[in-house]
Amino acid sequence: SGFPRPAATSILKRQKQLRRKNVRFDQVTVYYFARRQGFTSVPSQGGSSLGMAQRHNSVRRYTLCEFAQEQEVNHREILREHLKEEKLHAKKMKLTKNGTVESEEADGLTLEDVSDDDIDVENVEVDDYFFLQPLPTKRRRALLRASGVHRIDAEEKQELRAIRLSREECGCDCRLYCDPEACACSQAGIKCQ
């Protein structure tokens, strides 16, 4: 025939060509958002929840190495605060004999009373220790105030309390066998808990 035949291509050459087209990641883009009152989560303790603004207020790009270093610094700072809180709690427990006696000195202690010399962050492996911690009510309120939230909606506090209480009442009162007429689960159309 008069048509030229395509050159035969090797399967091995095709595999080598595909292997060269690896996806490479060389930077991390971080979007920063202002902190707002949440209305989207239920903290285990009372008070309002934390959230973020609808749109980011800044963007920063890092190389992978820079990002790892930045994370290390951030995690060490969070760890430092956590260790200070633990030390403060231990001091208060010592002064109150594990909470059994009143102590004005213990009531007056704050994080400022815990010296950086009292904690040893450098000898703690951050990757082994770092994890997200639930924040107490006062700390969440302070974070919101520091972020410029002047009016914290008190209704959310009541709604969150109602949700936490409703989660405590789960299942039914059936014992050994299920009575569908008295079983709250059965009446709700779900399997007896």
Automatic annotation (TrEMBL):
Its main location: nucleus. InterPro entries: CSRNP_N, Cys/Ser-rich_nuc_prot. It is found in: Nucleus. Belongs to the AXUD1 family. Keywords: Activator, Apoptosis, DNA-binding, Nucleus, Transcription, Transcription regulation. GO terms for cellular component: nucleus. This is CSRN2 protein. It holds the Pfam family CSRNP_N. GO terms for molecular function: DNA-binding transcription factor activity, RNA polymerase II-specific; sequence-specific DNA binding. Residues 19-193 form the Cysteine/serine-rich nuclear protein N-terminal domain. GO terms for biological process: apoptotic process.
